[in-house]
Design a protein that fits this description.
Helices cover 28% and strands 25% of the residues. The chain has 264 residues and is an alpha/beta fold. Helix 8 packs parallel to helix 9. The protein is globular and about 45 Å long.
């Protein structure tokens, strides 16, 4: 199994998880043009994508669906409330017909030779989820947590024993509090239990689920204004070092370019 974060941040999120026969996008929040461009950068083509799975309906996770689905009936997996929110968004109108594959949150489903497990996460969306993507033949697993206000007991338990973890590190608390461009109400929403994880919260969660299997942590959804890659990297790396998880590498994803592909 291979994983590449094509781009992640407040302006768009899209992660490729693939095997030799299945290429799965977790979210499609970059523009269709950018998704195609970044796939090309890693020698992939947009028509090779098997399907898309959606964590929730916000535009920074769904923006590219129009282009992806316009030329062919690409299966898009989502729970019912997320699909309804996307389908009734006035931005879409009748321009795009999406080939929905509905799943019930908590019920596993198969996409090619991958097994996808969903679970509820606390975020200000209709029915947001995190994912664990498994390759049953090799017992490898990737956890994806891009938007959540806090790590519930369910979240923590579901992403234990991963080989790789994509986890949100949205903001540095001090930078967010001092930001002059955001009104206080927005800051409260971001810091709330249904908002976004800070660097320290991401570090705490990573430390709680770290194990001998965990080879790589990707830090995702960094704010351009209220975070710095070096701050996110330091917070999580220090936590892993303190618990002796020196075998776990930490990569900060970028809004502007794909990460180096990790092969598990």
């Amino acid at each position: 199994m291979r994983i590449t974060i094509l781009g992640s941040g407040s302006a768009g999120n899209c992660t490729l998880i693939e095997t030799d026969t299945t290429r799965l996008l977790v979210d499609a929040g970059l523009s269709g043009r950018q998704i195609a461009h970044r796939l090309a950068l890693i020698d992939r083509q947009i028509d090779q994508i098997t399907s898309v799975v959606l964590t929730h309906e916000h535009s920074d996770h769904t923006r590219g669906l129009g282009v992806l689905c316009r030329s062919r009936p690409l299966p898009v997996y989502a729970n019912r409330l997320t699909a309804e929110a996307v389908a009734t968004d006035p931005e879409w109108g009748d321009r795009v017909r999406i080939s929905w594959r509905l799943f019930s949150t908590g019920t596993p489903f198969e996409v090619g030779d991958l097994l996808v497990e969903s679970f509820s996460v606390p975020h200000d969306a209709y029915d947001p989820v995190g994912f664990v993507v498994r390759h049953p033949n090799s017992s490898t697993a990737v956890g994806v947590l891009t938007d959540l206000g806090h790590a519930t007991k369910l979240v923590t338990e579901r992403v234990r024993a991963m080989d790789a973890l994509v986890v949100e590190a949205n903001h540095d608390l001090k930078l967010l509090q001092e930001d002059t461009a955001r009104p206080w109400a927005l800051k409260q929403r971001i810091m709330s239990r249904h908002g976004h994880l800070s660097n320290d919260a991401a570090a705490t969660l990573t430390g709680e689920v770290a194990c001998d299997k965990l080879r790589h942590v990707f830090l995702a959804h960094l704010s351009r204004d209220c975070n710095r890659p070096e701050l996110a990297q330091q917070a999580v790396s220090e936590k892993l070092r303190k618990i002796g998880a020196n075998h776990t590498a930490v990569t900060v994803s970028s809004q502007d370019k794909p990460t180096v592909t990790l092969t598990l």
